[in-house]
Amino acid sequence: MKKSGMVQFTIQSQIKLFNCNVIYTYIIRQLLPLPQLQKKMPIDYGVWDNIEVSDDEDDTHPHIEKGSLFRWRHQARLERMAETKLELQELYVKKAQATKLMCEIGSVLNDSTDECGEKMIAEKHCQEKAIRECDERISELEKITRSWNVDTIGRDGFSKTYVNKASSSKLTEDDEIKLAADL
């Protein structure tokens, strides 16, 4: 009987201790918000969030040659990159044209009458809407172009390579004497 009483006592004390820990943790979390409890990482790992390198290249179809499949995927990726770059350029041109037209409308509005003014104001609002749409689409495309893939993950450190010419190892006696005298 003494054993069961002792076991019951230890279980009850463990439950009380557990409850105290839970309450203590709850109070600490109420006093200190969770972000302050977590230590910040000394390295920003967010750089690798947008990497488009996948393990899908290990999965190949049994009837398609592996090299051909990789070339097709690479070619498709290059075509997508070229299309997004072209679309970005078109959007920048469209945005510049809309901005220019909006400025012209603003200058005409200052000198116009009421009848033309209403049409110009409507046109100005239309151009503002077009500029906002261009900005939204540009931000989407820039987010896509910022993602890394096999083609964009690395960059060249140097654009040129210099190779030194081998020096002649045989010196004449006169050159050796001059070299010794210089030292």
Automatic annotation (TrEMBL):
GO cellular component, one term: cytoplasm
InterPro entries noted in UniProt: Cdc37, Cdc37_N_dom
Pfam families membership: CDC37_N
Domain Cdc37 N-terminal intervals: 42-161
One Gene Ontology molecular-function label: protein kinase binding
A biological process from GO: protein folding
Designated name of the protein: Cdc37 N-terminal domain-containing protein
Species this chain originates from: Romanomermis culicivorax (Nematode worm)
